[in-house]
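Input/output pair, single chain:
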Amino acid sequence: MTSDGITTRGYQQEMLEESLQRNIIIALDTGSGKTHIAVLRIKTEVERQPKKVSWFVAPTVALCEQQRDVIRVAISGPVGIISGSKEPDQWKNASLWQTALRNNRVMVSTPQVLLDALRHSYVSLGRDISLLIFDEAHHAVDNHPYNRIMKEFYFDLPAQLSSASSDYQRPSILGLTASPIYGGNVAKAFRTIEENLDSTIRTPRHHKDELAKFVYRPIFKHVLFDPPDIANPPFSTNLAALIAVVKSIDIQNDPYVHSLRKQLSRAIRGTAEYRRIDQMLSKVIQKEDSFAHKGLRDFERTAEAICQDLGSWAADWYVWEVVRHAKQAANPQNNIISTWKRQEKVYLLEIINRIGVSPVSYYPGDISHECSDKVHVLISTLLSEKLDTESMNESYSGLVFVQRRDTVLALAKLLQHHPATKDVFKFGYLLGTSDSSYRHSFLDITRFMLEVSPQDTLDNFKIGEITVIVSTAVAEEGIDIQACGSVIRWDPPQNMASWAQSRGRARRKKSTYTVLFRRGGSEQNNVSKWQNLEREMVELYNDPSRDFIMEEAAADSDVDDEVLEFRVPSTGYVPNSSIRRSYSRIGLLRALLTLHSAVSHLSHFCAVIPSSVHADNRPLYDVDPPEFAEGWHSFDNRSKSFVSPYAGPFGSKVTLPRSLPLPNREFATERIYRSRISAHRHAAFTAYKALYDAELLNDYLLPITSVTEPHLDEEVKEMLKDVERRVGFANVSLQLDPWTLEGTEGKCWHTYELSIDGLPPLILFNISRSIFLPNDEGPTLYRPGQVPISTYLRFIESISLSDARIEQARQYTKMLFWSLNGSRMSWEKDDFPYLVLPKESDTHWERRREWLSQVNTTIAATRADEYLTSAEKFGKAFAYPTDLAIVRNGFQFAKSYMFVGWRYDPLNEEEETAFRKYYSRFQDLEIVYPLLEVQPFPPRSNFLIPTPTLGKERPSERRNIFLLPRISAIAVLSHAESEYALLLPSILRSFACSITVSSLRHELFNSTPLYDIPNSLLLTAMTAPVSGERTNYQRLETLGDTVLKFVAGIQLLAEYPLWHEGYLTRKKDHAVANVRLAKENIKRSLYRWIIRDRMLCKKWKPNYIKPEISKVMVKAQVTDPIDEKIYGKKKKKQQELSTKVLADVVESLIGAAYLHGGFDLGYQCASFFDMGLRWQPLPMRIEALLARVEIPDDYPSQLGNVERILGYTFKRKSLLIEALTHASYEPNLNTPSYERMEFLGDSVLDMVVIDFLYHAPGKNYSPGHIYLRKSAVVNAHILAYICLSSSTTADATMPGINSDGTIALLPETHIIHLWQCLLHTSSPVLEDQRTTAVRYKHRKGDIHKALTSGNIFPWADLIRLQAPKFFSDMVESLIGAVFLDSSGDIDVVRSVITKLGILPILERIVCDDVDVLHPVSRLSLWASKHGKELQYLYEKEKGKVSCIILVDEKEECRVTETYHGRASQEEVKFMAAEQAIKQFRLRDVDVNYTLMKKKRGPTKKKQVFQASNSK
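Output:
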């Protein structure tokens, strides 16, 4: 049998067939083809289970990648791999996992990845996996992830032999191993591994002889070496120097000890923080396990071991190399190892510089003389094996297995330079690798001593460029290394598995397996023991009585850590209800919390909480009882109070971060557990279960991140992957046509009197919806060069459909429309939904039309010319009248002109030239007078839009034209009628918009408070910018967006009292996201009333009662395209609306509601659209928030000072305490930190500022201008300045010398700054406050001057304050506290904001038109406008940071400053932008401010903002 070119051997086929019948663990030697059997099993499973995947797990990433490559060659479908490099911890959405499962037939991963996915219910073992393969299956013991997968998830599923649905049952199990045991009792080891994997260990029985032909057991050899002489041990000068320095160092000088003592001195005695620091200090002193001291001791021990094992030359080389690399890593100016702190680097560098090391000699005699006997024995063995191999005409290749990685480096280097081997062998080395970037050991610097990558080593070994590899155990297990003829164990194997696997690497015929034993040692005895165990294994493999499926049994385990678990009641979705009921009993599709996962889960939860500056969000564990008595670390007590270590039982207490507003943040266990880790696990389990009960976790037992609405339908969940994601377009049906008949409409005609200034009144007939205009005021019309025209519409009565006037009005209306728009009309269609008729007929023009009728009958005129006649004939018939209106330069819908007069006088030369050019198509044209003198109609078509100021039109734009009467036509309409024809489209457009919003009011808002919003506001709110109308929703949308976020934030703050600020922000962002608002819009069909069609008179044509294309309303969707439905031969018309337009209209309606009825009506409008929130009136929500406020027993002394600064006295002091509490504050455990109050204050401040800018007198700011000015006063820099500049004074008295020289109590005035009132217990916060205050002192004068009298906003000086975020957070949290304490009184908040100085700054910006455009934004807009490619590059070198601005890849400016972190990087970017602005002279450049809010792509080149890596 063959598979993809590889022959399947008989014993492999035997194992395959057996694996199809039962769960088995295949036990075969290395090189026998176990992976090939697994591939065949996968191929079979893929074919018979197309809906599930096969999952292959291997213990290391390297093994996973190797096995994936093998499987991918043999399997036709996709093979996916999930390892740490793909960041599976970030796959927080179940749909990501399901997509990966759907797109791949086979998955390969490390076991921890699969275990985590199962625990979060992202993957269901019974639903998704049909075959589970464990590579190196002997690991499935104790708490290895292999065993946890089986215990926690496999055994809860129904067995495959049960009657349960095949869709939900245990997967098949296949294990692969070369040695199923580590040692000891074979029967017990077999029973354990078989019970854990629910499988039987098997090896081929029917094809044993064939197996023997392909598996070559090596010849076992052993060689003895003499250990070092105890009386005369090897001496290494470099090691001696290292030992001397390590002995001299004192733990009391360690920077970590100094840091802990400093923290302890600032902590408050009796607090949990004090006790925690006290214990850490005692522990580090007692164990001397600081980073530096532990690392140096490890260095010393490793060097001593190398000296004993390899000899003094290897030890000298090792110490020299480590010291050399350590000096580079410890240099504070570089960042070779980012996890080393600067203080540790300085301390280590000082110690390392004291170690007097010398480079080693590479003289052959020195190397040979300074080697251990063990090295000499190894070299002799290598030379002997090479000689024997070459005597058989084969090339030599070998593996040397070494236990310690440092010994590998030293041994490989020694062999590369030893005179006996350097020219005989080509050596390489192989070490285990890790993807982790978080290494905290001093000896991790040895990673930088590697000269060749592991993969290069393997590749070179395969092609013979390397003949001997010195390796750690990484080469024992699974890694694909070419079969070699010699395997040598430098260190004896540690267990049975290591013995078997390293031996299996000697896979050539007549290969050897050599173990080095210490003469007189006991290790040799293990060999016979392992050989006996191997014989027992083979006997058990072939025992016929083992041909049955193992019964389930529980493995021995620590009861402490096995019993406790929690399963979420239901996670995920099972389509069949009966299956769902069945499997809810066994835990299928339910996320699982165990003691083993609780600690990591809790750490992850705290890690994703938004952190404040200098606040530690980690869960803090305290063991009970404390390991040390309080103060043990002091010099007086330490030697006296030491006692033997406490052996248990233990308890634990875990404390969660202060930013969690929980009623209890401490979770403790009783003192009943046998180990500290067990106690910590139970405390973490209790805390994490409490977080789930408090609804702070989702049903996957993960922090709520992207999916913050568990009750939304599946379609919405798919759209919540990113709250900023904008769906491109939504196909929706046509907008409402206000003139079409719906429901009971069309049973009568409504009549109105339409009055237009300067024209006779008309009777307007309307058969569709009624037209309602407040005060009967119609639209104002704007004719170019004329004063505005007012219109009025007064309702008269409703008349029957058969009224005699209707037909007359229909013909009159048709005449008006046809005269200017006939080319776009059909003569046969005249069922207009609106008709007009003059209130008084014009008999003069009626006689003229009678004459026209007779003429048309005589000449059989076409329909196109129904209302036209020859200008020459008409002039002769009526003595060239001067009351004409519309003239065409021909018939058949020729171009129309306005009549000016008859020209009897001859044309001058210029006029005649222009005339003949106009008629150039006629040769030898004879000019016959009189001529028609006409003017083009004005280009403006929509007369609802105001025109430029009267008199600004240039005369050249309205030059008269002369036409020949004999080839021109006259419309037989009076001047008034031509005005009707010209103005009626705009008037009807206005009426249509009014009908649209009236329809919205009656159909959607009927019986709701929104019904009272005036038509004028509704009209603005429903008009899209694309319509080109005089007003649109943009300003209202900006206001409504702010109102929505404000009211939604209050709802969430009250609804979720236990949510931290991060959850609240995500939930709010989701609720107000465009995609969410668009869904609410579509759900209510609001899009039908959006006025988005543009009126173009050149394309205008009248409406009809029976539309030309029938329109069918269908449900519109955001994500799925609408099926096009065909009715007869005509297809339903569709229009595309962007999701943003759909969302903007919702927000503009909220803005309109707020303008009309304040926050109450704004709330009503927001709640009308639901948005997935539970809505309650704002007063009720505020009352609920206040009801939870506790009354503290005592108050911090600074509260009164803060109240004076704010100009407001709190009724509930707890709110002020919360607003001042930093997350680092240790006392008063029950008060949460200020993040929730800052969340509220942020939206309150936005509301006040946006409301002010919207109503700014005489400004009518566009959204872009509102955004710019709001950004100037609501940003971290200006708010930090407000915090720094806000202060009060306090009077005190102190003894002093009076004027008469005597001592008396003299008054003193102290300035108390707002920032000094922050409640915290963090020394970094205190340091930041002091340094920022110094920077403020230097720049406050310039900032104050710019804000009070300058014409440019002081961005530069504000940014250079480099104020940490807690300064601005403090201001926003205080605003939130004032709002809440005042029961939501926005006027009180406004007065506080004024007192702080925020509103005065904004007022001046508005009144004096201060330039507030940010320099970086100004430069960006300039680049966009001119199609330039803009790049910001950063360079860090020698403590400096430079920002380089490239324009079209050319350096234009460079600014360099001292580097102090990200703040200085932002500052240097700003300074570079300022320099570029001056260089390009852009300060007065005319920019489009609206681009600041709504970005658009560059026209020619893409804008690039890029940061380079540090040099």
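The mean pLDDT is 81. The CA atoms of residues 195 and 553 lie 6 Å apart.
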